[in-house]
Structure formats: C-alpha cells, structure tokens
# Entry
Amino acid sequence: DAKTTQPPSMDCAEGRAANLPCNHSTISGNEYVYWYRQIHSQGPQYIIHGLKNNETNEMASLIITEDRKSSTLILPHATLRDTAVYYCIVTRILTDSWGKLQFGAGTQVVVTP
Amino acid sequence: NAGVMQNPRHLVRRRGQEARLRCSPVKGHSHVYWYRQLPEEGLKFMVYLQKENIIDESGMPKERFSAEFPKEGPSILRIQQVVRGDSAAYFCASSPGGIRGSDTQYFGPGTRLTVL
# Structure
C-alpha cells in the first residue's frame, strides 16, 4: 500500500474549520484514501473515505486532488471533542493486502477554545 | 445498532498466565481484524479473519499468539504465557465484507492488557 505523509501536529480554534493535509504521491489506481481518528486511546473512529471524487458526510469532507497524490480532510466547525490523532491511510482493495490498515503516526490535532 | 464489542475492557495477568480477548463484531459483519497498540506507539495490524478462516496473520507474533473466529460466537485472541512486553491495547475491528469496492472497518473500544 502507498505510504502517506501527514504533519505531526496542528492547532485549530474552536468553531473554525480544520484542514488536515495528507500526501500520498505513490497512490495506485485501486487504492482508497481512508481517514480515521483516535481520541485519547479510544478505539479508532472511522471518519470518511474516497477513491477519486470528493466526499462529504455528517462528520467531515474529503477533498482529493485530481492526480490523487494528496488529499485534505476538512472538519467544518471544529469543537473541543475533535481533539484527537487523525490518521490518513491508503489501502488497496481486493489484493493480498486486503484488510490490512497501516496506521502511521498521524496528525495530533488540538482544538483550543 | 450495536457496534463492535470487546471484553474485557481491562485485563490484568501475571507473567506466564494466559490472556483471552473477545470481540463481537457488528451484527451482520463477517470479517474481523485485530490490531495492537503498544504504549506510545502506533496501531499495528495483527490478523484478519473471516468465519472459521484465517485470511492474513502476517502481523501475528510467531509464538504464543493465536486467533479464531468460529462459526458461532465471538472472535478470540489468545495469548499464552504472557510476558511484560505483551502489555498493550488490543483493538478489534469488523467489516461487512468487500462488495465491489471499499470495505470499511469499524473498531471496538479495545482491551487494555497489563502484565505484571
């Protein structure tokens, strides 16, 4: 699976949008971009995923560049409860590495009042 | 609609004892995954199972660790003769199975194993 690069940390003011970048320049055509977050040692929480098109759900929006080499997770109105480590994961589907999520170090996001 | 359930949430064992961690997947999910998070480290994949089959155990330590997902009942991660280095958070995830594309994994709250 392709490697991802994320900034180690970022701060965000409560109520503002948080834009979390992720670089995945070696992504292949059959690889999805997934975002999870982990709030203080709880189980990872699924946020959103996409293949080519931008995606939006009740939690966040995912913007994937046209060449698919990078993406941005957008939390539209950050709250204190969004403080967590955010993981960008690229995973291949229907191959030998099916099912194996490879978590990197992620981005520690701290939302401040 | 219950999510992934894991029990116990906390488990304390002495060196040399056995640890059994249980995972009940989301109702209707037939795929189960186990991950381990050592203190101050990231999550690492251990094993991927479907009902009665181990699909990928490339992340499992070669000795003392085993996993099963029987036809009936929860998935079990078993650690024999635990050592202090096994102290970690063990997370289970489940997914419905890939159908023409992505297969999202949903995680449980984890079991925190402490080996004295």
Q: What stands out?
A: Residues 3 and 106 of chain B are 8 Å apart (CA to CA).
